[in-house]
Every structure is written in C-alpha cells, then in structure tokens.
Amino acid sequence: MTQIARKWRPSMSLVVALVCASLLAVPIVATLALQIGTNRLVNETEASLIKQAAIYAGAYVVAIEAGSPEAEGSLPGYYLPPSKRIFWSAASRTFRPLLNLRQDVVEPVRPDPVPTTERLDPRYLRIAPGLSALADNASRTTLSTVVFLDHQGIDLLAREPASFAAVPEVRQALQGDVGAALRWRSDAGTRFRLAALGGGTGFRVLIAYPVISQNRVIGAVYLSRTAPGLTEYFAGERIAFSVLVAVTLLSAAVVGTLLVRTMLRPIRALRHQSRAVAGGGHFELAPLGHYGMREIAELGEAVITMAGTLSRRSKEIGIYTNHVTHELKSPVTSIMGAAELLEDGHLSNEAQHSLIGTIKAQGQRMDLLLHQLRDMTRSRESLRGKPGRIREMLPEIAELDISLAPLDAVLPLSVAHGQTVLSHMAQNARHHGATRLELVWAGRILRLSDNGTGFADIDLGRLAEPFFTTRREEGGTGLGLAIVVAILDLYGARLTPVANIGGAVFEIAFD
C-alpha cells in the first residue's frame, strides 16, 4: 500500500488552540504597544520641559537685564557664534525631539553638584530669590524640578557654591545648545531595567536650556521630571482596559466554542466515518446530527455518498463474481465433458459432430456472457452525453416493428447510450415473441410496450437484477436489462417494469 509522505501537518486541536492563544495575546500585544508608546510620552515630557525652560529663561533674562549694566559691567558667559546667534535671535524657534527611548541609553542617576571655590556674581545673587519664588509657585502645577545656573554652571539657590558644569547636558547648554538626557531615578532602575522601562517610571527626563542675553549664554535652566508611565495611563483608563480584557476573553471563548462545534467535532466525526468506510463498515453510515458549516455538511454528504457507492459496488462485485462463476461453470463443465468423450475416440461420426456442436454452443454462450460483462463495465465507466432524438436511437430488429410517438421526441440520453438501451429493450421483446414494440414519450417518461408473452407478476421485481433471466434454456444471460439499468443510472433515470395482461410494459422515468 502506498503511504502518504510524512509531513508535519497541524491537527485541528492545535489550530483551535493557536487561534484562541492569538486572541488571548491581544492584551499582551496591546501592552507591548503601549510600552513602545512610552517613547511618545517621553517626547511629550521633553517638549513640555523645553517650553517651561523657555519661560524660566525669559524670566531669568528679564531679571538680569533689569539691573544697571553700566554699573556692574558687561554680562559674562559664552559668546555665541554666528550660526547660533541666528537661531536664538529668530522670531520663533522649533525643537525636534532630542530623546528616543528605543535608541538612547538611559544614563546613570543625575550626579550631585560638585563643590567649587568659584563665587556667584552679585547680579546672580540679586535675582536668585525672585527665581526661587517663581520656581516654587510654578512647580506646584508643572510637577517638575528646576535648578537655575549661572554661566559657570553654579547653582544660584544652593547654600554653598556647587557646580553642575561637569554634567553633559548642562555643559551642552552652557555652549548655546539645548541639552537633554534620560537618567535613572535611582540605582534600583539600573538593577531592574526591564521592569523599570516597562513601567515607564524608572527614569527621568532632564532638559538643560541656555539663558541667552546680548548673544551671550549667561546661564542655564536645568529641569527634570518623571515621564508619565503605563501605570498612570492604566489608572486613568482602567475601565476601558478592563472592558478590553473582558471582551478579549469572551471573544476567545466564543471563537473557541464555535471552532470546536463547527469544525473540530464534525471533522472528527467525518474522520471516524471515513475510517469506517476504509474498514468495510460503511453499510451503517448515517448523516451526522450536526455538521457545523455548509462546507463540512457538503463534505459529509460526499462521504456518505461515497460510502453508498462503495457499498453498492461491493455488493455488485460479490453478486457478479458469484453469478459469473455460476454461469461459466455450466458451459465449462459441458466443454470439458465433451472434450473427454472426444478423447476416447470410440464415437460415431454423428456423436462426434454432436459433441463438437455442444462445445461451439457453450463457447458462444461464454463469449456472449463475457461480451455483455464488458459492455456493463464500460457503461458504468462512461460519461453522460447530450440529449438526442429518439428516432436516431431506434434499432433494426428482424421481424420486429417499432413505432414512435411523437416522431420528433428528444430523449435525455446521448444517441450512443440511447441506441444501446433501446437495442437491448427491443431484443428482449423479440426474444419473448413480440412482433411489435411501441415507444411513447410523455413528459419525462418513456413507455415501451410490446405484444410478446410478457412476464409473470412474481418476476417483475427481479427483471433488472443482473443474471436473472426467464429463458436460461434458450441461452439468456440475464445481463441485457442490467446493462440498461447501468446506463440509466448515469442520467439519474429509473427502469420500472409495469404489470400488464399480455405483453411486457416498461417505463423509463427521468428526473
């Protein structure tokens, strides 16, 4: 037996499990998407801090320039090159996102300011209290931490002079650029990176914004704030998130139930039926109580039809085998007996001629039987043809007059098949002594009536059975009507003998 190549094919149970797992993965994928969205929250925090820093820097400049430059001397600080002067003197300034959580490395915790021997300029000491009050009032709303630095990076509000000049983002701001960094809030973030990044609250966004007056960087505003995390997002959207989880779980359950009911169970039942067919148990097949989907129902009907066909073929093969064996046994026995007698050689010429005639007759009977069996096999394997006119199908049988009404009738059989059917029907009528055969086409029924001896009522139910014949002594094989039935089966037609006093009457009904 040829075996199917062993290739990996997922089972229906695995497919159902994968579908349900895919549905259950929706919240996980959504969470991952929100984690990726944390980067957007970082950018929003960055943009907010830059706007705050611009306001603080504006207040810083106004406070510095409110003093008397003539008395205090020119302003200190880094003098901007032409390219930077153009940018900072423009009517409006636009800043592109400086931070990218998916690409930038989260830096260590912000370092503490370094003590310094440098001293603040008196002008910075004068404006420090006002800036401190501004920061205290604004931070209650902005929730950000602000540090004001002079041109050296010294904290204006520190009790003892301390400098942030060594911090990279501050150093960048003191050179006339906006500095930005992502830093861990504490050392715990460096140890639990995945959890901290997943929550989005393990790090802070830091912005160092230059304070520019008279084309000099006279100081910097150093702000920091923790970006909104997923916990805050879920806290505000917990009802929507709970609904999402509930709907996803419900959808997974519904889809899983539908897949099991409409696909898994029917296909398993069809698999059992197919195995029953393969094991020879197809005689007991019955339609399933539930097929699930239309396609599976069609598959189930095809399996039952296949089982029925196999059942009929199996029965027919058994019947044909038994009958062919029986039908061939008699002529073979006669031929062998005649051959044995001829071998003795003590027979008269008349007896020898008689035995030779017996051998020829039985050989012809065997040839006729095999020829009709071949015709029946071909009839079952042939294809349906286009309808043809009945008058083109009528056979010519000696001493049998065939009439047709109406003359232009069209039969739902091909001309070739129609010729075979009507030839067998006409020969059957002639063998039973008929001299006249009438064909009448009405609606979807062809009625054939002859004036022969007809059939006994007891034989009507067996006339179409293979090998059943009422004239076995005359050489009948019982395959003529069986061939007719085999051809009519191709067209969904039925041959029915009708009880009649006198000749035989048959009706061929087409669906």
UniProtKB/TrEMBL annotation:
Catalytic activity: ATP + protein L-histidine = ADP + protein N-phospho-L-histidine
Annotated ranges, domain Histidine kinase: 323-511
Superkingdom of origin organism: Bacteria
Transmembrane feature ranges: 239-260
Primary location recorded for the protein, binned into one broad class: membrane
EC numbers on record: 2.7.13.3
Stated name of the protein: histidine kinase
Species this chain originates from: Aminobacter carboxidus
